[in-house]
Design brief:
The protein has 121 residues and is mostly helical. It is built from five helices and no strands. The termini are far apart.
Length: 121
């Protein structure tokens, strides 16, 4: 069964020897899917669009694995968090650029140029 999250949040950094729990990984991946959905809703072009779509797919796969959800449940959870994140961003409770940058740092290859990802540093 998928975990309920009251509001989209990225987990705080953990200590180097502290591995994140499956729930932390699932939450991070879920917020990143919603983040990339908002980024892609802005109709980016070129490498940004390709990278965001690839990272979204990766985050979705991570969420499904970490939460042990089936695809239909995962998609329902994603739709719920998409709405919550969009509401948080529009009401000033979150910053899409910060979410995007954090998700890029977690999901993108380190050897990619920041210009390729379009993330704001």
């Amino acid at each position: 069964m998928a975990q309920e999250t009251p509001a989209p949040t990225l987990p705080d950094s953990t200590a180097p020897n502290d591995a994140p729990s499956d729930a932390d990984v699932a939450n991070m991946a879920l917020v990143c899917v919603a983040t990339y959905d908002l980024v892609l809703a802005g109709k980016p072009t070129g490498p940004l669009a390709d990278d965001a779509a690839d990272a979204r797919d990766l985050a979705r796969s991570i969420y499904i694995e970490a939460s042990q959800s089936d695809e239909a449940t995962a998609d329902d959870d994603i739709a719920r968090v998409d709405k919550a994140l969009a509401a948080a961003i529009s009401s000033g409770q979150g910053n899409l650029d910060e979410y995007h940058s954090t998700c890029d740092s977690l999901l993108m290859d380190d050897d990619q140029d920041s210009a390729d990802t379009g993330a704001i540093s």
